C-alpha cells in the first residue's frame, strides 16, 4: 500500500481508493449537502463516504446525477462508499438494504459496501422509531455470504466492515470467499487503534479513519477529552510546517497508511483537508504525535446507540 505523496491507495483486491474522502455523516440538510458536494467535486474530491443511516443518500444521488449526465464526471471517476444500517445487519435484509441504497443514490453500483456496525437490530420499516431498540438474532458468517452475493451481482465492487474488532474480522475471514477489503473505524491522533490497524495492514485490509479530526465541531455526549485539534502540540506543529492543525492531523494518518474521510461544509476547510499530499511530517514529529494517544477515553462514537448494547457479546469495543 503506497500513499505518501499521491491521492490514491491500493486496496487489497487491487481496487483504488482515494486517500482523502468527503465524510457526509452529519449532513442531513439537502441544500447544505448539495453545495458542499458540488464544491468538493469541483476542487477534486473523488471519494464520498455516506451510509443508509445518514438519510442523505438521495441528496448525494441527485448531485451526482447532474455531474454524470452533464459529462463533467464519469461514474468511474468517483469512489462511493455506503453502509448496511444496523437494522439491516441480518442475513435476510442485506440485499434489500443494498438495493435501497442504490436506488437512493441513483447508481447501478457502489465502490464499497460496508457493514456499518457488528450488531443488528429488529427492523420495523424505514420510518419506524423502534428500529434501534431491540437487538435481533444475526449471524456474521451468513451476513457476509449475502455481502459476497452483492459483489457477484455487480451491486458493489468491494465489501468491508465498520466498527468490527479483530476477533470479529478474523471469524469472517476464515470462511470468506471474498475477503473484507476495508475496515472503517474511528481514528484520530489521540485515538490511534494501533493493534487493529497493524492487524488489518498485515492482512491486506485498507483502513479508513472516521472522525479523523476528532469531530471537533460536533456536540457529542460521549466526549470525555477536549478536541485534540486544539492541543498545544498540534498547534505548534501546524506553525512549524506552515499548515493548519487539521492538515497535521490528516497528514499524520496518511503517513500511517490510513485513508481519511473528514467532514466539512466550509469551502476553505474542504480545500485545506484535501491539500495534504505535498508535505511530510518528520519521523521525530510523527513519534511525538504518537504520544498524544489518549486511550479509551478518547473514543467518541457509539456509546448508548442501542439500549444495553454494551453488554452484548458482539459489542465490538471492549475486546
Ligand atoms: N462508520 C462509522 O460508524 C462512522 C461514524 C462516524 C463518522 N463516520 C464518517 O466519518 C466522517 C467524518 O467524521 P466526523 O464528521 O464525525 O468527524 P471529523 O471529520 O473528524 O470532524 C468534522 C468536524 O470538524 C470540523 N472541521 C472540518 N475540517 C476542519 C478543519 N480543517 N479544521 C477544523 N475543523 C474542521 C467540521 O466543521 P465544519 O463542517 O463547520 O467545517 C465538523 O464539525 C463522517 O462524516 C462520516 O462520513 C463514520
UniProtKB/TrEMBL annotation:
Residues annotated for substrate binding in this entry: 116
Domain NADP-dependent oxidoreductase: 20-292
Keywords tagged on the record: NADP, Oxidoreductase
Gene Ontology MF: a single term: oxidoreductase activity
Site (Lowers pKa of active site Tyr): 83
Active site (catalytic residues): 54
Alphabetical list of InterPro entries matching this protein: AKR, Aldo/ket_reductase_CS, NAD(P)_OxRdtase_dom_sf, NADP_OxRdtase_dom
Keyword tRNA-binding set for record: no
Keyword Amino-acid biosynthesis: no
Family as reported in the entry's similarity comment: Belongs to the aldo/keto reductase family.
Protein name: NADP-dependent oxidoreductase domain-containing protein
Amino acid at each position: 500500500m503506497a500513499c505518501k505523496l499521491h491521492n490514491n491507495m491500493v486496496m487489497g483486491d487491487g481496487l483504488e481508493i482515494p486517500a482523502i474522502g468527503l465524510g457526509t455523516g452529519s449532513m442531513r440538510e439537502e441544500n447544505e449537502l448539495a453545495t458542499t458536494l458540488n464544491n468538493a467535486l469541483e476542487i477534486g474530491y473523488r471519494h464520498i463516504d455516506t451510509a443508509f443511516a445518514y438519510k442523505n443518500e438521495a441528496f448525494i444521488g441527485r448531485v451526482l446525477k447532474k455531474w454524470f449526465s452533464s459529462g463533467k464526471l464519469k461514474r468511474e471517476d468517483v469512489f462511493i462508499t455506503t453502509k448496511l444500517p444496523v437494522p439491516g445487519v441480518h442475513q435476510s435484509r442485506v440485499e434489500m438494504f443494498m438495493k435501497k441504497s442504490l436506488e437512493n443514490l441513483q447508481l447501478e453500483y457502489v465502490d464499497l459496501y460496508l457493514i456499518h456496525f457488528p450488531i443488528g437490530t429488529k427492523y420495523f420499516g424505514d420510518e419506524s422509531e423502534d428500529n434501534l431498540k431491540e437487538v435481533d438474532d444475526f449471524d456474521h458468517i451468513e451476513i457476509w455470504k449475502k455481502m459476497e452475493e452483492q459483489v457477484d451481482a455487480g451491486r458493489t465492487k468491494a465489501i468491508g466492515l465498520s466498527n468490527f474488532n479483530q476477533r470479529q474480522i478474523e471469524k469472517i475471514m476464515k470462511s470468506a470467499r471474498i475477503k473484507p477489503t476495508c475496515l472503517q473505524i474511528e481514528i484520530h491522533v489521540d485515538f490511534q487503534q494501533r493493534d487493529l490497524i497493524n492487524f488489518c495492514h498485515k492482512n491486506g485490509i485498507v483502513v479508513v479513519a472516521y472522525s479523523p479530526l476528532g469531530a471537533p465541531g460536533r456536540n457529542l455526549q460521549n466526549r470525555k477529552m477536549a478536541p485534540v485539534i486544539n492541543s498545544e502540540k498540534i498547534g505548534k506543529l501546524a506553525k512549524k510546517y506552515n499548515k493548519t492543525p487539521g492538515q497535521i492531523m490528516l497528514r499524520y494518518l496518511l503517513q500511517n497508511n490510513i485513508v481519511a474521510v473528514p467532514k466539512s461544509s466550509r469551502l476553505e476547510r474542504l480545500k485545506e483537508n484535501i491539500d495534504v499530499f505535498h508535505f511530510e511530517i518528520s519521523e521525530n514529529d510523527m513519534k511525538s504525535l504518537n504520544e498524544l494517544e489518549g486511550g479509551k477515553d478518547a473514543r467518541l462514537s457509539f456509546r448508548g446507540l442501542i439500549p444495553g448494547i454494551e453488554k452484548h457479546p458482539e459489542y465490538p469495543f471492549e475486546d
